[in-house]
Amino acid sequence: QSIDKDEIQNFLNELKYPLYFLDYETFSGVLPAFDGYRPYQQVPFQYSLHILDEPNGELRHKEYLHTENSNPVLPLLKQLRADVGGKGSVVSWNKRFEMQRNEEMALMYPEFANFLKDMNDRMVDLMIPFSKGWFVDGEFLGSASLKAVLPVLAPELSYKELEVSHGGMAQRVWMETILGGKNKETKDEIMGHLRKYCTLDTYAMYAIYKKLLELF
Questions:
Q1: Rounded to 5, what percent of the chain is helix, strand, coil?
Q2: Sequence-ordered list of residues with C-beta below 8 angstroms from that of 212, at least 6 positions apart, any chain
Q3: Dihedral angle, C-alpha 69, 25, 124, 6, nearest 10 °
Q4: 215 DSSP 8-state letter
Q5: Cis status of the peptide bond prior to 18, with omega within 30 of 0
Q6: What distance lies between CA 102 and its chain's CA centroid?
Q7: Which pLDDT does position 151 carry in this prediction?
Q8: How close are the terminal C-alpha atoms of the chain, in Å?
């Protein structure tokens, strides 16, 4: 294990409270499901948001999951704007993905463009200490993905027990159930699995953030 405490300290010092740990789940297809989208565009249908208002504050959770066969973006944005305040760092893992979704949604719904641009200006990538090699552990097996880092830093948290355990599966199950109208008898159960999966993604970031703080 090798840890560059100076770099990690500088990185953590740039974070501003409240912290918003954000993750989107998205769907895409060759044929756009709704008007105004291009083929293969990644369209958010769900987010999880863990909020830490102050260093030793109570962790709060907000979420949105679209459960109807209709364009999810506008209701998702309305809820997101209500959930994310005007100051504080928005933390994600591999932030480029979330930022690109925000840019695309801003083009589709210009009334949210200022909100989304402001959010992008405040985005912080929690993957950086790992992808830049400031925190290296042999058990990461050379990867800086959340799924590689989490079992090493917070082994008590696991995706293995989940019915939906990765983003590709979340996309497939949501598209089948909501857009495809399948799994009608188990729809509520499936939506519960999707909520659990996305919730763990942002809770995992919070847990890793806390582990980084413990270095000091």
A1: 50, 15, 35
A2: 8, 12, 129, 135
A3: 170
A4: T
A5: yes
A6: 12
A7: 95
A8: 16
Cβ proximity of 46 and 68 under 8 Å: no
Distance CA 19, CA 86 (A): 11
CA 147 – CA 169 distance, rounded (Å): 14
pTM over 0.90: yes
46 phi and psi angles, rounded to 5 deg: -155, 145
- pLDDT per position as a tens digit, 136-159: 999 999 999 999 999 999 999 999
Torsion over CA: 80, 83, 87, 91 (sign): negative
Residues 6+ apart with CB under 8 A from 132: 7
Q: How many CB atoms neighbour CB 103 within 10 A?
A: 13
Give residue 40's pLDDT: 92
Tokens of residue 137, six digits: 């552990």
Q: How far apart are CA 60 and CA 134, in angstroms?
A: 29
- Residue 162: φ, ψ to 5°: -80, 145
Distance CA 46, CA 27 (A): 10
pLDDT tens-digit map of 91-113: 999 999 999 999 999 999 999 99
Q: Which one-letter amino acid corresponds to residue 10?
A: N
